[in-house]
Amino acid sequence: MKQKKQDIKLINPEKYPSIIKGYGEKPFRAKQLSHWLWKKHVCDFDMMTNLSAGLRNNLKRDYEIGCIKPLLTKKSKDRTIKVAFGLFDKNTIEAVLIPSNNRITACLSSQAGCALGCKFCATAKMGFTRNLYAYEIYGQLVELGTIAEENYNSGINNVVLMGMGEPLLNYDEVQAAIDMMVSEEGMGMSPSRITLSTVGIVDGIKRMADNQAAYNLAVSLHTADNKKRDNLIPANKKNNLTALKNAIKYFYEKTNTRITYEYLLLKGVNDSEEDAEKLAGFCRISPCKVNIIEYNSVKGINYEASTGESLKKFKDILDSKNMIVNIRRSKGADIEAACGQLAKELNKFKKK
Ligand code: SF4
């Protein structure tokens, strides 16, 4: 039986020199190989034109190249672009390009589906399929970079790990992808332009702290009331607000980094004056800013966006406490690219 070849993208690039040495090639070939795989993102050894035919044949014989490929692109009226990517095992994930104020943000997925079942989220309805490999997370960024150049005539300025999945439940691969984003071998990005967004996985936040993460942490808080949070975000039962507070305190002590709280404002659920007071109380743990996010309705999910009046009152309370508060207008709602709407297109692809 023909043995399945090893995926070279699953091998740490630090090991490329020994692979190259094994073929009796000069050490600088390892750098060239890395360049093709991680900078040029090629999916075929034959495209590595500065490698000799002999080396390419050896590599082809022993390895395959894991790739992610854009399958479909949808453009919103507001210029947001959603991209569905196909993976080697026919799974499909989505990522989004969000242009605003001369900046382009790439929102990446970390898992195919999600196991956490947040009540307001379309991805939750799909269930969990698998964790993404580092190259699949990083590959979204490379491919989105090309699409950004084509459509906006500009590269990507910021990265948020806020698409499908909970990044802290795929910590090692997410960290490896970020390492590649910031390395010179990869994209050479500043870690300050990368934000990991979690629903509050306490152990993961502590790991980030222990590893002195130089990138940003955003916590999708959505309510500072433990009971309400248990209902909205089932993962809160294992990561309750007291534990989350302690983890955030620890993170701040270790990294000195300001945390961002994401707060999806839901009509009649978490948008009362009392909710705003509770949020303000929670935010006293460490320096932070709050992003209040407009909700995009999702078919089959019974939540509604807050009224403009509730939003104003909510924000006024936070402002009166001198908090840093931004209102994030939803983008890409017409292409179902906004938060919690990344699921639908996917299923279409899976059935093909
Ligand atoms: S909001 Fe995030 S963590 Fe919650 S179910 Fe959706 S993808 Fe998973």
Topology:
Elements: E1 6-7, H1 16-22, H2 28-39, H3 53-62, E2 63-64, E3 69-75, E4 81-86, E5 92-100, E6 103-107, E7 111-113, E8 128-131, H4 134-152, E9 158-161, H5 171-182, E10 194-198, H6 202-210, E11 216-220, H7 226-232, H8 241-255, E12 259-265, H9 273-282, E13 288-294, H10 308-320, E14 324-328, H11 344-350
Parallel strand pairs: 1-2, 6-9, 9-10, 10-11, 11-12, 12-13, 13-14
Antiparallel strand pairs: 3-4, 4-5, 5-6, 7-8
The structure holds iron/sulfur cluster.
Structure description:
The chain is of the alpha/beta class and 352 residues long. It folds into 2 domains: 59 residues, DNA polymerase, domain 1 (Orthogonal Bundle), CATH 1.10.150; 282 residues, TIM Barrel (Alpha-Beta Barrel), CATH 3.20.20.70. It contains 11 helices and 14 strands. A 10-stranded mixed sheet has the order 3-4-5-6-9-10-11-12-13-14. α1 crosses α2. The model has no long low-confidence stretch (mean pLDDT 92). Iron/sulfur cluster (SF4) binds next to loops.
